[in-house]
Amino acid sequence: MQPVLNQLYFSDRYNELLDGRGQPRPHWQALVSQLESEEPAVMRKRMEAVQRQIRDNGVTYNVYADTHGVQRPWDLDVLPLIIPSHEWQHIAAAVAQRATLLNQVLLDVYGEQRLFASGQLPPALIYGHNGFLPSCVGIPHYDNIALHNYAVDIARSPNGQWWVVSDRTQSPTGAGYALENRTIISSVFPEMFRDLNIERLSGFFASMRDSLAHWGHRVAQNQAQTVPGIAPLSQGEPPLVVILTPGPYNETYHEQSFLAGYLGYPLVQGNDLTVRNGVVWLKTIAGLKPVHAILRRIDDDYCDPLELNAESLLGVAGLTQAARLGNVLIANALGANLLQSGALLGFLPNLCQSLLGESLHMPSVATWWCGESAALEYVIQHLDDLVIKPAYPQMQSSPIFGEDLNATQKEALIARLRAQPGHYIAQEQVDISHAPVLSNHHHQPQMGSLAVSLRVYAFATPNGYAVMPGGLSRVASGKDSRVVTMQRGGTSKDTWVLSEFTQSAFSLLRKTTSSQDLVRENTSLSSRMAENMFWYGRYSVRNLQKAMMLRATLRALLEYTPESREGEWPTMQGLCQWFDLLPSPKDDEEWAKWQPYSDDDIEPLLVQAVFSQQSGSLATSVQQLYQQAFNLRERISNDHWRTVNVLSRQFITRHAHATLQDAMSYIEQAVNHFVTLTGFAMDWMTRDLGWRFMSLGRRIERLQFMCVLLSRALQMPQHSNLEWLLQVTNNLVTYRARYASQPEWLPVLDLLLMDGNNPNAIVFQIKGLVKYLEEMDAHDNAGGIAAELKACWQALLQLDPDTCFMQGSPELSAWLNHTYEVTLTLSDRLSLRFFSYASPVVISGH
């Protein structure tokens, strides 16, 4: 591939790739050389590999107003942004200094407020900020750190200098996306990534986890000393750190679940936590567990409906008081949002000299807060050269470029500035640097150049701030775009920081130093996560059963004449109705008149049952399964998640002119995916508490279906074909291997009822359910349900096969109906017992 370098050069902007002579900069030379030596087809494969990994991994960025759907695939350019080592040292030092400075400002504003008294900060700037939380004044902070998690957006001006554009201090986003970008791009350029000695990211996340553990132990010690009934952590026992999320509809929920899985933290929502006796507790299936640290992704004022925002449904009532008592570490501290105000930027140079005794290593873009009269007049006089922005993030208005306004618009803007000057800031308009990007133009890679900015991350440690070596690079959506943002269609890049030293492989997993550190069961499984696992198990089996029922029905329609399937055909249609795959009569009167569909009528209905976006179809059931998996993303492996995501995408496309053959083809593919998911669940997942709840859901769902299936099949006319029963339950091969004859009732029922080695048999489900329920607790409501199931089991064993395992058997029909009712009760009691908090219980490990 031959990049046309001279087309990428702009004299009025700094070019990340090219120097002033239009030649590649030294740190880009290796990449340019590879691009020049590669055929376009090779680079196209690299681009396709990036897009495939994003699709298969389900990397999304939720855009609230996107007409194409909330979950938009993450956009990643194949070319990284490369930064040389000496330049990065300056950036890292500047970011660490800035985080230290802002932490000092935050401590003062919510502490002694000396900066107000000395005149270094206008009180109106802080008190006029909606993000200032009076309730948080005076809250103590371990090691005087309130700003634990910090991010800063920086950009390069035409002279090559990096400038700070904005600070992110509330709950900075993007670090997880930066990690995913690195995983994908390093696999696309593996040799180059290795040979260039790119700085690894895992050390930064290890520092984050070690720091939270350090302060979590401090919190645990405080809880044990001040709260009766709380025991100190045992030696080697880690503190409980959680990530607090607004939920699956948040724009960066995928990143939050990805980070939770990577760091090994529970991802919790507000209703997973409760505050009692000034302590934050996680509602787990084993009772309440004290929480020591919270890495929050919820906005400040939504964190506590009791003291901060009574309308919030996302937070935890009493969280502020728990922080006030030192019984929980919140990263970042409540109230950190006010540091995101652009109005602060103009005051930081003097504050840095005053608080740190040194100059800012990296200046901010020239900024004027219109709340100062002199600044307001300057802004009005130089409006054509400035960008007007809201002073406070809560205003949520778009930047206004003065050069775009006509005379009337300027007058209107000046009137707004004079009416509410404190609500606005003005910044110098900077033509930020361009970086190379690759696009797919007419199926050929084409290199272009777009504006780029870099978000750098820092996290507090007991010894200062650790800075991620790299960050999240973002490029504008078009050549004329002056705003770089993912919400407006921007693209991300991996950021490669070159190192002078060879990089060794590094694992984030903590080291086990003694047998006391060994963990074989995680009892901190939240009730919500247990419920998600339970229903994921149910949806997994339900989808497979729907697919198998549809496949058997389609085969009967395509392979048999109406006369040859007359006996079982009404029953098969009735079971499809039970699954909501076919329309059902609305009341008893309609049921009395109901007749099986004719072949001509049922054909389009079965196609709709596969592809329709209406409730009950296989397509919508697959999306329900996807959403359930999405809710427990951090609990399943990447391969497991990838299979769910690929399956989901298969049914997203609408099929307006699909045929029965198309439907059969999609069902076959879906069955393969469902079987793969079963393999992940049964062979790849550790059999911990979460797995057991998933297994309970799977067995309850299968047991219910088997009861309904056999109960209805027993009512079929004499001499009905039983082969479809074996197809639906995936037992046809086994039956033929054992009997080598046409299916008959006695051996079919023995196989589907009594064979303990058959994973689809009823007795297999009951045995497993009894086992798991007795493991969980043999002395509460769950134990009672286990007793009912054991009674069903004994009653089944007492049935005489020679008289009961036949068509129309009233004893067997009664047993099937009773067992089905027991499973309904079982599901309800599990929900009441484990999925909504009750009193603490003890759950055995095995």
UniProtKB/TrEMBL annotation:
Signal peptide interval: none
DUF403 domain: residues covered: 525-835
Circularly permuted ATP-grasp type domain mapped to chain residues: 80-476
Matches recorded under InterPro entries: ATP-dep_Glu-Cys_Ligase-2, CP_ATPgrasp_2, DUF403
SUPFAM superfamilies per record: Glutathione synthetase ATP-binding domain-like (SSF56059)
PANTHER family in the record: BLR2978 PROTEIN, BLR5612 PROTEIN
Protein name per UniProt: Circularly permuted type 2 ATP-grasp protein
Source organism (scientific name): Methylophilus glucosoxydans
Highest classification ranks of the organism: Bacteria, Pseudomonadati, Pseudomonadota, Betaproteobacteria, Nitrosomonadales
